[in-house]
Amino acid sequence: MTLNKMGSPGRSGVVRKPNESMRLIVTTFIGIVFGFLIGVSFPAFTLTKLNLPSNLFPYVEDKNSGLSTQAFLNAWSTLKGNENNSSEAKNLNNTSKIWVPSNPRGAERLPPGIVAAKSDFYLRRLWGIPKEDITVKQKYLVTFTVGYKQKNNIDAAVKKVNFHSLTFTLSLSLSLSAPLNLFFLQFSENFTILLFHYDGRTTEWDEFEWSKRAIHVSARKQTKWWYAKRFLHPDIVAAYDYIFVWDEDLGVEHFNAEEYIKLVRKHGLEISQPGLEPNKGLTWQMTKRRGDREVHKFVEIMAPVFSREAWRCVWHLIQNDLVHGWGLDFALRRCVEPAHEKIGVVDAQWIDHQTVPSLGNEGEIVEGKAPWQGVRERCRREWKMFQDRVANAEKAYNKSIGIDLPKSTAS
Q1: Per residue in 69-104, pLDDT tens?
Q2: Residue 13 pLDDT > 80
Q3: Does residue 294 sit within a domain?
Q4: Residues 307 and 372 occupy one common structural domain
Q5: Burial of 241 by CB count in 10 Å (0-12 exposed, 13-18 middle, 19+ buried)?
């Protein structure tokens, strides 16, 4: 037996100190456990879910770096926590932006079932159950652009004398005490009535009972096409089968709105107007009533009636600045196909154009010219501007697709 330098027996070679051996064992054990946990638990679990006690490895420490195992575990848990939070936030953001092709622009973040893309002019109550507000949903919309001076004419148009009822009543013996029903609503409960007031006077119309169920919109010195562009968006009037866009100076003695709609449907007209009495007022030859037929094809802009589908196109055709709409009637053919079959005048239901100089007098005296002269000059100017815009737009589009039409056919 041999003795080492310390005088004790032992094997030759390096003898490790007990503390170093223990440290090596513990470090090895931790490495194995740590690697096992990563391999088994990632990515389904994080180390925080293992609930390792903080005093499990109290003495495992790198003296040089000062980084303890517990500190490393804490850093790892924090990193995984941030990663999970980021993933959850990303998922939350994705679910909050629900995009469906049918959703209107701007409503991408809404679930489709809550989107109310269209509206109407149906009046609502301030009380009760919402679904019980409307007893009758009007199918047609009639608009008049009015001034208070023409109130009696509009009243007569809406509530005209029922001559049939009058004749029948007077033929009875007075002793029968028959009800004297002299009036009926020209535009029945199937119609929503909308008045555009160019003179700012609205409350005075309350003297008429029918006016209390009408919609009143007021903007001074504006035309019906200015109103139509701003208040008759296709999604606002989508509830109505037909939209009447009428002037205030129309006589309706020979007109019945319900019968008119029947003829429009019968002949498949998408854009129409009643015939105009040929011996009264200033009218286009093409819109004069013809007594030998129900309908003839073509339409002027004075008292037009549009189907819901046609109006969606016409609304886009109306210009924001060309408020008189002169020339618009000649472009309406672009909104229906075939135009010669779907645009027409209903001769069997006709009206009188009274040519009342109402809106024309809303102009101002400029350079010594009377108000109506300034208005008329702008009308003519707008007609030329509109024609040029249509021609230029069509020419630009044709050029973009490689078609170069002669000037004579581009307008």
Answers
A1: 555 455 555 555 555 555 554 544 555 567 788 889
A2: no
A3: yes
A4: no
A5: middle
